[in-house]
């Protein structure tokens, strides 16, 4: 009975328990706990039963974190995107270097992926020219490296 009241309290007051928050953000509760440990998100309150309670602002923050990660930013980057060195909202000038670094990293990864793509296409062409029963030169080459 007490457990049921807790959930009604959280829903009525526009607050989320950790599991409700995680579900709304599309992540696992362990991820929310991890983000809390490293200071990316924190509960706004505690319930009478000492459960963590989060607001819509926490949900928005989690969505921002996930979007930033999908764009290639690390969690350390996300911290910098959320707060500047003085604890305020970062300016374009303060995050420009971070964005440039991520862009350069993305360009390097794209170059590497293009190289892998060329190798795989070449390997596929060679496989198409060989008999199915012949030893695959791609596999043989990987064993040598």
From TrEMBL:
Gene3D superfamilies: 1.10.1660.10. InterPro entries: DNA-bd_dom_put_sf, MerR-type_HTH_dom, MerR_fam. It comes from the Bacteria. Transmembrane segments: none annotated. Keywords: Coiled coil, DNA-binding. It holds the Pfam family MerR_1. This is Heavy metal-responsive transcriptional regulator.
